[in-house]
Write a structure and sequence with these properties.
- About 40% of the residues lie in helices and about 20% in strands.
- It is an alpha/beta fold.
- The chain has a single domain, classed as NAD(P)-binding Rossmann-like Domain (Rossmann fold), CATH 3.40.50.
- Helix 2 (about 65-70) packs parallel to helix 4.
- The mean pLDDT is about 95.
- The structure holds nicotinamide-adenine-dinucleotide.
- Nicotinamide-adenine-dinucleotide binds next to helix 1, helix 4, strand 5 and strand 7.
Length: about 300
């Protein structure tokens, strides 16, 4: 099976490419990545020259390039995105361009190439916030920040290509990932490196916002299962059930690193900051998946990587 992995030089994409090469011997992977500030060849160290892997630097909005790459490809896994909420609040243009138009370019090429499978990687943020309970796949999309709005747009577009063109699209919506190779602008890597350097840990608002955290390897295993066994046209939530407030995450990191509570500084809250996300994962569990990593084990592995 030949798979085009877009955004494979980013955090989750690079973990996923490694996961596929380690766990399957029936795949040839082409990684397409524009190497924005968030992507890096070094995330693919050790697998750039793997016999079943080829890296191509390029943009998912490049229609000709994408059409060429899809000519002899069986499946697309689309991780490529602008992914940082704070940046989307500062300026949403690159988010619309990559997350919406880039996805549309891939979808058009996928229809022309008569692809067997198109896996669109999405996020729990498309549902908006939930104060109690969990979101199921049938819940309406009510994104509240520009990043989430562009991801919701891409989900709807992808789903519409399944309905109107019969493209076998499957969509996954995952909670917050953590693990090796995440960009240092994101909460866990930033706080680990700040804590170890004796610097401040800037917590938004009062730190009470709740996120559901999944270790990236658990997510990669779920994505591969959905790629192989998910039903076309379906959405699958991927979550761990591990909920932590930002303050709890901050304290756990300080405890691991041996830092001081004095390093915590409360800063002005993010505009429109979603209070809580949580996912109902019954549907993917019916495919036979369940998370294996505890928060503490995953955090320890992540710490080892960054420190
Ligand atoms: P990331 O920012 O680490 O990686 C994104 C990658 O996409 C980078 O390598 C970047 O160079 C590449 N890219 C950006 N624009 C591109 C373009 N126009 N053409 C080709 N490549 C381009 O992001 P991530 O955290 O690894 O997230 C990957 C995907 O998973 C995204 O679609 C994101 O929305 C989704 N997701 C992430 C999380 C999370 O917690 N990180 C949770 C749920 C869903």
């Amino acid at each position: 099976m030949r798979i085009l992995v877009t955004g494979g030089a980013g955090f989750i994409g690079s973990n996923y490419v490694r996961y596929l090469l380690d766990s399957r011997d029936d795949v040839d992977i082409v990684t397409l990545d524009a190497l924005t500030y968030a992507g890096s060849r070094s995330n693919l160290d050790g697998i750039l020259n793997h016999p079943n892997h080829e890296f191509i630097e390029g943009d998912i909005c490049d229609r000709e390039l994408v059409a060429d790459l899809l000519e002899d490809t069986d499946a697309v896994v689309n991780f490529a995105a602008e992914s940082h909420v704070d940046r989307s609040i500062e300026g949403s243009e690159p988010f619309v361009s990559t997350n919406v138009q880039g996805t549309q370019t891939l979808l058009d090429a996928a229809v022309d190439a008569d692809l067997d499978r198109f896996l669109q990687i999405s996020t729990d943020e498309v549902y908006g916030q939930i104060l109690d309970g969990t979101f199921s796949e049938a819940d309406p999309l009510e994104p509240r920040n520009p990043y989430a709005a562009t991801k919701a747009g891409a989900d709807l577009l992808a789903k519409s290509y399944e309905t109107t063109h019969g493209l076998p699209v499957v969509i996954t919506r995952t909670c917050n990932n953590f693990g090796p190779r995440q960009h240092s602008e994101k909460l866990i890597p930033k706080f680990i490196t700040n804590a170890a350097a004796g610097k401040d840990l800037p917590v938004y608002g009062d730190g009470s916002n709740v996120r559901e955290w999944i270790y990236v390897e658990d997510n990669c295993r779920a994505l591969d299962l959905v790629l192989q066994e998910g039903d076309p046209g379906e959405v699958y939530n991927i979550g761990s059930g591990i909920e932590r407030t930002n303050l709890e995450v901050t304290r756990a990191i300080l405890e691991f690193v041996g830092g001081s509570e004095d390093q915590i500084t409360f800063v002005e809250d993010r505009a429109g900051h979603d209070q809580r996300y949580a996912l109902d994962t019954e549907k993917i569990e019916r495919l036979g998946w369940e998370p294996e990593w505890s928060f503490e084990e995953g955090l320890k592995r992540t710490m080892d990587y960054y420190l």
